[in-house]
Every structure is written in structure tokens, then in C-alpha cells.
Amino acid sequence: MLEYYKVLQLPSMRVQVILYSQPEDVVESCIESISVSLGNARSKRLIAGSSIILGDCSGSPCLANATVERMKEDATAAGIDHLEYTHFGRNLGFGGGHNRLVEGAHEDLLLILNPDTYSSPLLVEEMVSACQDASVGIVDAKQLPLEHPKSYDPVTMDTSWALGACMMIRTSVMTGIGGFDDKSFFLYCEDVDLSWRARLHGWRVVHQPHAKIFHDKHLTGDGMFVPAETEPENSAESSLVLAYKYSRDDIVDKMVDAFLHSPAHFHRKAVNRFNQRRLSGDLPARIDQDHSVGQFVGFDFAEHNFSYAD
Amino acid sequence: MQIDPAQKDLVQASPTQGGSSRYRFGYAEDSLYGRVMSLVERHLTGGGLVVDIGCGWGAVAERCREIGLDYLGCDVDPEGLVDLSNRGFETASIDVSDARSFVESLHTQVKGRKVAAFFLLDVLEHLVTGEQLLMALATLAAAGPETTTYHGARLVMSVPNVAHYELAAKLLMGRFDVTPSGLLDDTHVVFYTGWRLEEVTRRAGWMEVARDDFVMYESDQRFPPEAAMLAPFTPLRRFLAGIRQTADGFAFVNQFVRMYTPANPPALAAPATEGVGISGDVDGLPSRPIFDKRTFANQVFATVLVRTTGSRMGTLHDTLLSLAAQSYGDFEVLVLCHNTPAQVFDAISNLVNQFSPTFSNRVKVVPVSGGGRSRPLNVGISLAKGRYTIILDDDDLAFPGWMAEFRRLADIWPGMVLRLGVAEQHMEDQPGPGGKLFYHATSRPRCPYPKKFDLLSHLHENRTPPCALAYPSSFFQYLGFRFGEDLPVLEDWDILIQAAELCGVADSPEVCTLYRHWNGGDQSTAIHPPAEWMETRQEILSRLESRPILLPPGYIREVHKLDDLERICHRLHSERTRLLAEVARARQQDVGAEDSDAGSARADRAATLASAVAGLDARRERPAGTVDISGTTPQGLGYASWADVAAALAAELVQVKSSKGWRLTEPVRAVGKAAHKLAALFAPRR
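YS: structure for the whole thing
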């Protein structure tokens, strides 16, 4: 057995999902598929116990009590030790929600999962397999049907950052680096930031192309990627904050210039909000002064194999 | 009196008589009876007694004797029996319409002799209780070897085919012309198609072992002979008869000539096939099969055929995952493992079983051996239970709303081929750590395929990947179409144009599936050389040329467009020649001139224009493709679409007109007019 197992024996696993107004059937499909994947990994003696924790940021609960009870029964039948659902009563954001959920986590590995996903039955075992290397802190999965274009080293599988839609992270790494920076990032780029901070602490971030997740995405009739409704505005602001946090004023300037000349209203709005935060001192402390981990390629945070914007 | 052509010569040889004598047919080698006895001679050896049930005048009696079979003729008509007796054959007056009493009487007549076969030659269609009779006979024949009298007796039948093409054609004319004998003999009370005969005999406990159907391209129903549906060389007959023949292969079978062996005693007979119920119960024996429409209402919406050789387990995994993640789940999946080694087959089965039961319970992993690329698809079609059949190869991906969108279209346009938007993405293999192969996308998805289906352009080349299409399963299961197993490639194109022609195509612009294009080629391009693709394409086009084609409404205008385009291309061709000459002259004159840059620019523009014109001229060789120009990409000219080519031509015209280089103006003016016309042609259609 590899080093990882010498230390941890069989790892236990916690799956965390943050909900925000998803239909019940979407959530149930997500939980059913990840339960099967957990069950498969457990039956192959790749993981020990597992739990699924759902945090709901919606104004009113996504899931009815009866649905939660049914999900618990199904999870138990699938060999999951524990399923828990918490309605936060307010929108904590992606990072904030996960930070809240991870408090008190005792499992060895965390799987951060989006609710609009359907897991491969082999997802967990492939991701755990990548974690067998003790130097790996975070692993992300291959998204289907639309692959994320960020590149990775074909030999080491190292990648600039891990996608938050489906990432596995050692709980010790998560807590050790302080979790997601939910004060700086409400939506988007928090996964990039988490990855880069883990790398600053010496952990490797790798892509596992054999671990697959089906993520509900859409294309226009011309084959253009259709972003989520919240994505353009939030990701524009988060990109500015990320560049600022990683001490890249040159990138900040370029982004501001581009956004101000953009025909999209949300770009100018993002710049305004960023400037307001800068004036009010609401921006994060600056790190990575020597640019050892922050990778800005154009406005992307990694080399990309292709661009959805072509 | 109409004369059954099948018996025409025989009837003429034996003058017709009134009453039952109308069935007094003689024996000849090339007649139906010759066909029956040929079957008997080939498959019934060892002698024994033939019981000719409903024997009439016993046309085959002498031939039976000649080949060493004893003959017993049974009928209620005394005239035929007397004749048989006079010819030296044993007869019995037995009413065959009551199965039980017939069996009792048969025991008395047979007297323990070994029965080799029961003959029912053109009898079954006269009996309301025909199926009960078949069951009773099967019970006798299936009895254990201790009852040696009937054990293993064969059943030999000839039965008129009520679905002969010419009867179907008559129905289309609103005619059902009953005649004194022949296909629509006025004494027929039950009508049999190939399917129904198979169903009835199977349910009765008989298994077919041989057949030699009696084919007549000209039946006794061909009247009036000049009717467009009946006359042999009319496009209408060729088209309709082609459809009819494809459906079950029995379009011109006048009488089914079949031999059966006992399979299961009726009491142990397998349940009726899907869609067939039991209409009643007569003396404990089920009556004739009928269809229950409700069976169709309960069908699963679709069957997805996933064709794999097992060489791409990773992408197969992706494909299955995309199916498991569908938002609409009323479908089954057949994973068709083509020539896969046992361990690979096991690995695929194992992969499927690791999915959630809500998905894996809807998946069957099917081994398929032999044949080409079409074989697994045809095997899948034979097993499919869905109302629609969809192909998703083992490297295709479906978006979560793929099946839901098919369903939405089907509700609006039932029975049509359903076609969704499809994106194409370039992929690349890469060896990973430990030699484990992985792959990734190298381009963003693009949608190079026409958003709207166009039959004419598809007659030129395939412009729709299979994963974007759902075929009504009835196209395969009732119209009888199959993927061409003789086609090494392009089988999907071949079936699409046939289905589109007959069913029509309903489009959705929603991009719901991803067709992955492998850099360096996929299996099909690696295995099959370009020449094979070209030859197959020609073969498919030749087949299309050999038969009438059904075009949907609105295509007159498209044909006119073709004609217009042809003329435009001719004109462009001649203008090209002139233009090139002008370009050469312009370059000569610009040498050393003060405005040499401008002259050079003019020459470059003209050269570009000449190139575009040359491209258009080359395009003239692809008449069908020119119709849907807006959806193609003429890479050779460096334009995104033919509409862009036309726009570029128009733009060049504007530039040249505004320049001082009037040397070029005159020839370009002509081209420009053509370009404007071309642009109008390419305007989006409704």
C-alpha cells in the first residue's frame, strides 16, 4: 500500500454540497449518483465510512422534510453512514457555505460537489486513487459533457487550480489553510484561490482525468458556452479580487481597462464594486508577492487547451 | 369468372366445373403443388402416411405415391373424395371445422399407422377454427415417442397471402375485389399475412423448418392491368412495391408454402408475443391472435443503441454517464459489444453494473459477433422495445436534456425522424502515467451542421451525426428497414436519407449532443481507406438512382434554385476566364506606374475574386450541396460560408466600383450581379 494508506489506513470521506434553489429531483439525482460512487468505493475497500452533508443557502428550503427522510433512507441503503441537511436561512455563498459545513468535520477527505452534477460510479475511487500520492492536496475531476479547458501536465497531472464543482481535498489541508476565503469571494474564483493557497503551503493540485462528473451545462445554437445566470457579473468581480490578492496589479489594470471598455453592463458594474471595496479597505491581504503560484494567462488562471470564447 | 393465375394453366387443363369443382386443380412441377411437393421431397424422408386435410380433389396424391408416401385424403366434399377413390386413394369424409371431432375421426381412419405429415393446402383460410385445428394437430405430433402414430409428424401448409402487393394496391384504390378463387376467394373467412401465419403457427405449437413460398409478381388481382398502382413499370408501383417488399419481404408471395415440426404442445406454448392477446376461448383452446393497441401505449419512449468494440472504455464510460444523467429517463439502453473479447465484455458489464440501479436496470449489454459496422445496430433494432431508436456511439455525449428534447419533438411531430442540434468537438488521445490512455478536448464545441434538415443537401452528403437523430422504431420494425450490412461505411447516411424521405424530419435547434471528432482520425477512418468511402458513397447514390424518390412539399422551389445556381455557375465560369485575363493585363500595366501599390492592391483583389469564382465554379460539380450553401464551410476559399463568399463578392464589387481602376470594373460588374443573385439565393429560408 502506498504511503497515504500507511498513514491513514482506509480514509473516511465527507461529501459536501451547497444548495441554492435547486429542484428536488436535481438534488436527488446528484445524491443518488454520489451515494452509488461512495458505495462502490467502500465495497472495494478504498474508503472507510462516508457521510453526505447538504447545506442550503436558499431563502426557503430546497428540500421538503419527506424528501430529506427519503434521501436518508436511500443513503443508508447505499452504505452511507450519515446524511445531513441544514438550511442556513441565508445565502452564505459557495465558500461560506462549505466553510460552515466543514466545521467539526472528522473525515479524512472532503469531496466538494455541485448539486447540478451526476457522479460517475467510479468517481470516488478514481479521486481517492489520485490522493494516494501524499504530496497531493487537492484533486479535481473531469467535467462532462463540456470539459474545462484548463491544461494539466500529462505526466504529473499537476494543474494550476482545481474546479470547485467537484474537488477532493484532504480535510487537514482545508482546515490548515483556513478553508475558502469567503470574505473575499462570494461566488467564483474561490476554488482558484483555495488551490493556490494550498500550493503556497506546498501541496500539489492535480487533475484526475479518469474521475468523471457530469455537470449540467448548455451550448447555444452556435456552440457557444452558456454561463450560469450569476456567472458573468460575479466572476468578473472575483477575477479582479483574485488578481489583486495575488499581487498582480498589472492584471488588475488590464482587467479594469477591458471591463470598462466592455459593452456588457455587468463588467462596468464589477469594476465599480471592486473600486468601492478597494476604497473601503474590503479587499484581501496581498499574497504571493513573488508570483510563485498565481498564474494569469490573459484573463484565465491557467494555460488553456482551447477557449470557449473563440 | 376470374381465374387464379397460379392455377390458370391447370384449370385450363381440367375444365372448370360448378360447385366444389372450382378447386379441381391438377398437379404440375411449376405450380403451387409442385412447390409443395418439392419441399416435401427435400425434407420428408422415410415414408409414412400423409393426411391431406381438406384435400379437395387431391392434386398431390399421385406425387405422394410416387415418392413413397401413403396418402389419405380427408374432406367433407364428396365430389373430390369420389374422384380420389376412383384414382385409387384412401379417403375419409371428415369435417375439419371441428378440431375435436376431427381428431377423433382421424384416429379411426389412421388405425395406428405412422403419420409422416399433415397437409393443409389452401385450407386454413377457409376455417374460422383454423388455429384450434393447428393446435390439435400439434398436440398429436408432439406426443411422446410411445405414441408412435403421430410422433414427430410434420405439418405442410400453403396459405394465400392477403398482404400481396397487388392486394395492398387495390386497397389503396378503395377496392377489395372478392373473386371465385385466388387471393380473395369468396369462401375465405380468415386472412393471413406472413406475420400472422408465423404468430398463429408458433402459438399453436409448430416450429417452421423449411419454406418455399410461391411467388407471383402478377397475381390474380391485377385488374385493371393499366392501373398505375398495378402496371409493372410505373413509378407509383415501383415506389409502393418497394416499400411493401422492404416491410417483410413477402410483397409478391402469393401463397406461403411452409413446413413445420412440432415445437411445444399447446398447453405448454410460450406466451403470445408482444402486442398479441388472446381474443377468446373455444373449447379451452385460444382463438386467433389480435393486436392490443394498449401495448403500444405502454412502450418505453426510446431505445438507445450504444455501439462499441470495447477499445475505448474511457469514452464508453463517458457515454454511459451522459445517459445516466438524463433528465428524462423513459428509455432503455442496449450496449452492443461488437466482436469484443470475453474479458472486455465482462469489463463492460461490470462497468454498467456499477451505475445506480435506476440506470443499470435499464441497460442491457449484448454480445454481437461477425458482420461489419451495421451488424450491431441491426441486432439492437431487433431487440429494441422503444418507440424511437437512437444511436449514441461509444464516444458520443448527450447533454442532460437530450432525451427530453427528443420527447418534446415526438409529442409535436409523431412518426417523424427527430433531429436535434449537435456540436462537434475535436479531441486528442494522450498516453498518461502507467500507460493508461486519456484524452482531452482541443477545441471548443462548434456547430458545423445545418440547423435545419434539408433532404436535397443530405442526398449529396451526410450532414447529421447519428447522435442527433431519433428514428421511429416502426421504420425498422414495421417498414422493415435495416442498416446496410453490405456497406462498410456510411451506413448511417444510407438509412438517414431513406428514413427522411419516408418519415420526414422534425428539427430542434437545441444543441443537445456532442459529437467527438478525434484528431488523427477515429477507428472508421483508420480501418477504411478513402477509396472505400468513395466507393460506398457511389453505391448508395446508385441505389438512390435506381428507384423513385419521394420529396417533401416545397421542393419545387429548391429544384428551381438548383437550376438557377447551375446557370449562375456557368456564367461565373465564363466571367472567371475574362477576369483572369483582365488581372494579367492590370498587373502588366501597373509595373512601374506611380500608383503601383494601388495597382497591386487591385490585382490582389481581383486575384481573390478570381479564386472565389474558381471555387464557385468547382462547386458546380456538387449540385445537391449547393442548395444548402448557408450551412457549409468552403475552407478552400477561406470563407466561413457560401453566404460569406457571396457577400465578399458583393463587397469587392463595391470597392472596385469606387476605385479609379476602371480597367477591372467591367468584368467584375458582371460577376457582381451574379453575386447579388447568389446572395439572395442564400438568404435564410423560412
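YS: worth flagging: Chain A has two domains: 12-217, 224-279.
IM: good catch. Also Chain A touches chain B at residues 29, 32-33, 36, 40, 118, 120-122, 144-147, 149, 154-155, 157, 209-210, 212, 214, 216-223, 225, 305-310 (CB under 8 Å).
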